[in-house]
Amino acid sequence: MTVLVSEDGQTASTATEVRIRVPGLIRLLPGGNVEIGGGTADHPENSFGTAFSIGKTIVLADTFFAQTGVRIPFNDMSLQFGGVFDLNGQFTPSTTPGHLGHRCGNEIDVVDHIGDRAAVLEDHLRDLVRSPSVGGAFLKHAVGSYHLRFER
Predict the structure, then answer these.
(1) How many angstroms from the chain centroid is the CA of residue 87?
(2) Structural contact between residues 150 and 56, judged by C-beta atoms closer than 8 angstroms
(3) Does 5 fall in a domain?
(4) What is the CB-side half-sphere exposure of residue 8 using CA atoms within 13 A?
């Protein structure tokens, strides 16, 4: 990034790196009823979130498992310091549709890559996400692929 500084009619420019981070993100760890997937070579750790969202994710996972006996395959929460998932290495929002909301740690995807859980996922997931114990929003991308947002 190039920064321009101007004072008293004088202008100078310099190239520098600017880091913007979302403070307080913590990692959602696999275990218990939480199953994590979706890491890439560029972003092997993609399961960071706010404490609030991680708490809601665990409640969702535990309640879902108690009702169905099936673990939810979570995928893509947020990067370690937040920010856009730069799937093309360019950090441009227009090339990462569907991942813009992940930059702050309050959204997570559920993706059934194998397809063995699709029958049980959608109805239970939609109802649980909208329940008072979880409280959030639910969006279906495709069969077996869902986007969840946790709201205070």
Answers:
(1) 14
(2) yes
(3) no
(4) 0
Across the range 121-140, mean pLDDT stands at 89
Q: pTM for the full model?
A: 0.79
> What are the Cα distances from residue 147, in Å, to 21, 42, 78, 109?
23, 21, 13, 4
pLDDT digits (tens, 9 = 90+) for 83-108: 776 655 555 555 545 566 788 899 99
Q: Which residue has the higher pLDDT, 2 or 53?
A: 53
Name 27's Cβ contacts closer than 8 Å, sequence gap at least 6. 45, 47, 48, 80
DSSP-assigned beta bridge partners for residue 75: 37, 109
- Our count of domains for the chain comes to 1
- φ/ψ of residue 139, rounded to 5: -135, 130
145, two tokens: 């692929």
Q: Is 127 helix (H, G, I), strand (E, B) or coil?
A: helix
CATH number at residue 55: 3.30.1380.10
Q: What pLDDT score does 119 carry?
A: 80
State the Cα angle at 29 between 123 and 45, rounded to 5°.
100
As given in the structure block, the two tokens for residue 11 are: 């202008």
- Give yes or no for a contact between 26 and 51, defined as CB atoms under 8 angstroms apart: yes
